[in-house]
Amino acid sequence: MSLNKVPFSHIVLKQTKWKFLTYSQALLALITVQVIFSLLLSDGSGSSGTGFNNISMQTNIYGLDGVVMVGGMWAFITGMIVQTRAFRYDDYSVVTNRSTASIANIIVLVMYSFIGTIISVLTLYLLTGTVQLFSHAEFVSRNVIISPLQFAVAFVILLLAASTGYFLSSSFQLSKWFGLLVIAVFVVVIRSLDEYLLTVMLFFFQDGYPLFIVKGSLISIVLFVVSIFLLSRKEVERS
Amino acid sequence: MTAIFTLLPIIVFFSILIFVFYRVTRNFSKRSKLWTVKRLWIFLLIYVGVGLVIMLILAFTTDPSNVVLEQKELKAIIKQEEEILNLLLESKIDEVGSELVAREWSYNLPSDELVITCQNKEDWTLTVVVSKREELNSNEIYAKVIQIPYTIHGIDLTDKIGGRSIEFQRSELILGEREEIKLAYNQLDPSLYMIGDFRGMDLDNNDIYNYVTGVEILYLNVPEHINIIDEDEIVFYSSISK
Question: What ipTM was reported for this prediction?
Answer without folding.
Answer: 0.88
